[in-house]
Amino acid sequence: MTKNVRVRFAPSPTGPLHIGGVRTALFNYLFAKKHNGTFVLRIEDTDQNRYVEGAEQYIIDALNWCGMPFDEGPNKNEKFGPYRQSERKHLYKQYADGLIASGNAYYAFDTSENLDFHRKDHEAKGKTFIYNWHNRLKLSNSLSLSAEETQTKLDAGDDFVIRFKSPQDETLHLKDIIRGDIKIDTNILDDKVLFKSDGMPTYHLANIVDDHLMEITHVIRGEEWLPSLALHYQLYKAFGWEAPEFAHLPLILKPTGKGKLSKRDGDKLGFPVFPLKWTDPKTKDVSRGYKEDGYFADAMVNFLAFLGWNPGTEQEIFSLEELIKAFDLNKVNKSGARFDPDKTKWFNHHYMQEQNNDALAEAFKNSHQKLADIDVNYIAMVVDLIKERATFVSDFWDLSHFFFTAPTSYDEKASKKAFKEGTKDILEQIASIAKNIEDFTVENLQTEIKGWITSNEIGFGKVMMPLRLALVGALQGPDVFDIMYMIGKEETVKRVQKATEAL
Question: What is the pTM of this model?
Answer without folding.
Answer: 0.91
